[in-house]
Amino acid sequence: MNGKFVCFLVLLSGLIGCDTNEKPVFPVYPVKGTVKYADGKPLTDGWIEFTSQAGETKGRNSNSKIDKDGSFEMETFARGKGAYAGPVTAVISEPASEFDPETGGVKNSGVKVLEKYKNYETSGLKFDIDKKDNTLNIIIDRK
């Protein structure tokens, strides 16, 4: 091998992994559960999102689609399935409207969520995520 190429490889290997802008990596913990109305019927579609209120992870989010049986399993963008430990505030939103190719219009799921649950300031949905498997059974008002 040519000496300049070897020097280049040594220099390159020293630079790999030397990111001076490294951000701390915080673990996430499994969070699953259900969203039901006070009458016991499940919220059959929509989204749930948590935002961490804990020190170093404050403002980091996790979210999940809500399935037809009301079940969900939280996931973060960068860390995979789970949510950050500590206190979180949650919001719940209706599913997005979809294009209906049969009619050419908008297809709406018919699922309605009270406005108060769509805002972190008014939802009243606060939970503590433990450093273990977490199961939450969330009850919301229909009216």
How would you portray this structure in words?
A 4-stranded antiparallel beta sheet has the order 4-3-9-12, with no helix packed on it. It has a 3-stranded mixed beta sheet with strand order 5-2-13, with no helix packed on it. It has a two-stranded antiparallel ribbon with strand order 1-8. The radius of gyration is 22 Å and the shape is globular. It starts with a helix and ends with a strand. The chain has about 140 residues and is mainly β. The model is unreliable at about 5-20 (pLDDT under 50). Strand 6 (about 75) and strand 7 (about 80) form a beta hairpin. Helix content is about 10%, strand content about 40%. The protein has one domain: Sandwich (Immunoglobulin-like), CATH 2.60.40.
In a nutshell, what does this entry contain?
The chain is mainly beta and 143 residues long. It has one helix spanning 3-15; strands at residues 28-29, 31-37, 47-52, 61-65, 71-73, 75-76, 80-81, 83-84, 86-93, 98-100, 105-107, 125-129, 134-140.
Tally of DSSP helical segments: 1
CATH class annotation: Mainly Beta
What would you call the structural class? mainly beta
Fraction in beta strands: 35-45%
**Shape annotation:** globular
State the end-to-end CA separation. 76 Å
Query: Mind describing the biggest β-sheet?
Result: 4 strands, antiparallel
Using the coordinates shown, work out and report the CATH topology.
Immunoglobulin-like
Number of strands: 13
Order of helices and strands: HEEEEEEEEEEEEE
The share of residues in helices is under 10%
Biggest sheet, spatial arrangement of strands: 4-3-9-12
Give average pLDDT, whole number: 86
Q: Architecture, according to CATH?
A: Sandwich
Determine Rg (CA atoms, Å). Answer: 22 Å
Low-confidence stretches: 5-20
When the domains are counted, the total is 1
Identify the CATH homologous superfamily. Answer: Carboxypeptidase-like, regulatory domain
